[in-house]
Amino acid sequence: MYATAESCAEQLCISPRAVERAIRVLRENGLIERTGSDKRGRWIPTLRG
């Protein structure tokens, strides 16, 4: 099972857009990176930051 922005938002009681914004900030700060394809990929925490 994969977590989507919608499922994360529901569990956190925030909007899916807020989840996407948080992912963008984490990515821009080098704290996570995407591996794999757009459909089957995942976000991986990095040691950089």
Q: In percent, how helical is the residue content?
A: 40-55%
Determine the number of helices (DSSP H or I, runs of at least 4 residues).
2
**What is the spatial order of strands in the main beta sheet?**
1-2
Backbone structural class: alpha+beta
What characteristic shape results from the CA principal axes? globular
Number of separate structural domains: 1
Beta-strand fraction estimate: 15-25%
In round numbers, the mean pLDDT is 89
The major β-sheet equals:
2 strands, antiparallel
Compute the CA-based radius of gyration. 11 Å
Number of strand segments: 2
Distance N to C terminus? 28 Å
How would you summarize what this structure contains?
The protein has 49 residues and is α+β, with helices and mostly antiparallel strands. The protein has helices at residues 5-12, 16-28, and strands at 32-35, 42-45.
